[in-house]
Amino acid sequence: MGVPEQWPETLKAMVATMLSSPHPMFMAWGPALISFFNDAYRPLLGAKAEGALGRPFADLWSDIWTEIEPIVGKALAGEGSRFEDMPLVMTRNGRPEDTWWSFSYMPLRDGSGEVRGVLCVLEETTARVRSVRHSAAERERLEQMFDQAPSFIALLRGPEHVFEVVNPAYMRLIGHRDVIGRTVAEALPEAVEQGFVGLLDNVFRTGEVFTLTGARFDVQAVPGGSFAERYVDLVYQPIRDEAGNVAGIFVEGSDVTDRTNAQAELREREQFLQSVLASSNDCIKVLDLDAELVFMNEGGKAIMEVSDFNAIAGCPWPDFWAGAGNADATAAIKAAKEGRASSFQGFADTMGGNRRFWDVQVTPIVDASGSPNRILAVSRDISFMKRAEEERTAVSQEMAHRMKNSMAMVQAVVTQSLRHASSIQEAGRLASERIQALSRAQDMLTKSDWEVSQIRDVVEAATAAHADGPERFSFDGPSVSISAQQSLGLSLAVHELATNATKYGALSVDEGRVSISWTHGPSGEFGFSWSERGGPAVKVPTRHGFGSRLTERVVPAYFDGTGGTEYLSGGVRYVLGGKLTSDNDRPDRG
User: Fold this and answer.
1) Which of 388, 393, 362 is nearest to 375 (CA)?
2) Residue 68, Cβ neighbours under 10 Å: how many?
3) SS3 per residue for 174-187
4) Which H or E element spans position 526?
5) How confident is the prediction for the chain on average, in pLDDT?
6) How many C-beta atoms lie closer than 10 Å to residue 424's C-beta?
7) Cα–Cα distance, 37 to 83 (Å, whole number)
8) How much is the CA Rg of the chain, to the nearest whole Å?
């Protein structure tokens, strides 16, 4: 370059300008593009700063020359360039590092207008770019958390409560309506009618946090459509500006409809169980593990003639039994504490001193780990059965006497038939006819109570009231006897299915049909199917009441099996599976 006094005036002027600038500046001059820079530029060189002044541009920045050369060439051709946050991988401290730059390249002309060099005014933006990217990543993470949050969230602005932000959970709650930029009153008119906007007004006015638990919110997802009953837990949190004034409201909450419905169902079940206990004529007692009385149902108090349960609460239950009954009660308590159920029968007096004969079932009540923590004792007054048994013994003795008389009568019939018949053939015919007549008369006298029936008879009887035409029902299954208790259960299930079909299913229209079938395996396996077709479009119920529990829980228990309802497009289908038993094979479930 020679001594500075001999430099071109343009070069001397640009160097003076560059040295006086507080902004980082770099200049490349002449055919070799000799490097000039000011003190503000020096820190940007890093470890390259030593010996950098006066080096050729391509040599000084060889690590980025591939990216920079086209820009320099453009400036040398007389055209400037501007770049914002341009990424460059530099090796300025002995290792490659990601950097970002905002800079301008301008051609430097001498007095004749010829381009003699390049001027670069620049700023390293690495820190700012990384900060922005970090902020963007953090915002994206928060937005993901916001979108993925299981609770519903909304940000409302101003006293009119304008929606600024809502997350997907909020949109699911309100039915995916267009709410951004609209007021709550405009977007959710049902919220006005149900008082929620008034609550928002109060939070905005007072600046106090407001919470609700299990609040009912009837949502009209489609304008003019039906309302969906929802229950929510929510918080209205005021948002304050820099001056401390309320500028908006943060809304956060959870849709607890399922929890609320489950609690309601639990309360309904508890009330049902309480009504069952209250109406039962059995004496139902709960004992602790020391066999002391903890609870007795109302029916039990009545039959035991207990006027004040507090007078006997805490008393050892075996003490109510005497003799063999006390030993049986003590043994039953021992079995229950070991996790086993047992039963016995015996005499015990009521609190009024009246003697009763009881059938007793003693069962352990287990905790979550399966260990007994209470004992259930159910006593049924079967004094009348005891008396009936005693009477039956007397009747049996009487029947033996009558049987002798019957045999004597048969003998007399045969004898008289032989004596007065004109032939052996006539005697045989007369004797047979007379004995059959005698047998029919005996059947009428000794016929027992109803014990078993045919499944088809049970099903036809249960559907008779709904069969408004011979084509309504079809039946398919083998001839199988069913116990009285299971008959009752099956009748209840068929009755419930037929009632629902009449209200909502195949029996509600003239074209609807119901097919009923059953199977019976060699080991007592039993299968029952109810299938509807030709009815209206099937709608899956949103809530399940006692009818569903009857068909899917209660009745299957009579068969030691399972039951379930399928809401198919062609029609409702109910399937019951289990085993057929006699009444003597199972405990009373009545």
Assistant:
1) 362
2) 20
3) HCCCCCCCCEHHHH
4) strand 525-533
5) 85
6) 9
7) 19
8) 48
Tokens found for residue 536: 């209206």
Three-state SS at 338? coil
pLDDT (tens digit per residue) in 457-501: 888 887 887 888 889 999 999 999 887 678 877 887 888 898 888
Look at residues 293, 330, 329 and name the one whose alpha carbon lies nearest to residue 312.
Answer: 293
φ/ψ (deg, to 5) at 2: 80, -175
In this predicted structure, the answer to whether residue 122 has a pLDDT above a threshold of 70 is: yes
Return the closest-CA partner of residue 380 out of 355, 352, 356, 354: 356
Which residue from 236, 239, 196, 246 is spatially nearest to 218, judged by alpha carbons? 196
Check residue 448 and report its DSSP letter.
P
Q: What secondary structure letter does DSSP report for 465?
A: G
Question: What residues contact residue 121 under an 8 Å CB cut-off, 6+ apart?
Answer: 23, 24, 25, 103, 104, 106
Q: At what angle do helices 424-446 and 383-420 cross, to 10 degrees?
A: 170
Strand, coil or helix: 426: helix
Count, residues in the chain: 590
- Kindly list the distances between the CA atom of residue 292 and the CA atoms of 289, 316, 355, 359, 371, in Å, as whole numbers in the listed order: 7, 4, 22, 20, 18
Q: How far is CA 372 from CA 269, 298, 390, in A?
A: 23, 25, 38
Q: How confident is the model at residue 420 (pLDDT cuts 50, 70, 90)?
A: low
Q: Are 571 and 534 in contact (CB under 8 A)?
A: yes
The neighbour count for residue 197, using CB atoms within 10 Å, is 18
